[in-house]
Amino acid sequence: MLHFITGPMFAGKSKYLIKTINCYMHEDNSLKVLFIYPEKTYRGYFCRDKDTIFDSRVDIMTEGEFRDENNKNSSFIENIILNYDIITIDEFCFLEDSGFFLDLLNKYSKENDFIVATLDRDFKRVVWDSVAYILDSELMDAHTELSGRCECGKRGLYSKRTVYNTSQVVIGDSIYKCECKDCYENDNTYTV
Ligand SMILES: [Zn+2]
User: Fold this and answer.
1) Environment of ion ligand 1 (residues, CB < 5 A)
2) Domains of the chain, first to last
3) Cα(153) to centroid of ligand 1, in Å?
4) What separation in Å is there between the alpha carbon of 152 and the centre of ligand 1?
5) Of 1, 87, 99, which Cα lies nearest the Cα of 37?
6) Could you read off the pLDDT of 53-75 as tens digits, one per residue?
7) What does pTM read for this prediction?
8) Under a CB-based contact definition with an 8 Å cutoff, are residues 144 and 20 in contact?
């Protein structure tokens, strides 16, 4: 099954993912979990809330390590599927080769458990292609949509970029705000 976790920046997606993993591991001591993340988004921590830590039994790999191992060993993915009860992927929209992981989900998520967390939309509120693929597919069995908190107090649904840069991918916590629909639409300073 595929549990999909989506939301804007500062909605607590990684925190929710890690807590979900820990919850499953707390219930089952023999559970084996693999956590995969794209190296380009790593800022020295997996979760802004430093009180949220992994169970020490979770194995962690970057996207690059995962794909390198797969290139070296033709039975790598079969072994991963056999060895791990749950495979999790964080920051899905930032994967270099999302097609590779969409193939993985297409092939194995009916029989194996996957939990995938991601931003839903970019700073222009456009749904990321890889996210749209999952939302429109029949892959998803459960969907947790998280929201943050706008400065005005309303639910924050969108990731507002606070500097001028038109690239879709610009990593950095300090140049984004989580905003509600009204605040996002009333301040078009950097929404190009
Ligand atoms: Zn607001």
Assistant:
1) 150, 152, 154, 180, 183
2) 2-147 (3.40.50.300)
3) 6
4) 4
5) 87
6) 898 899 999 999 999 999 999 99
7) 0.93
8) no
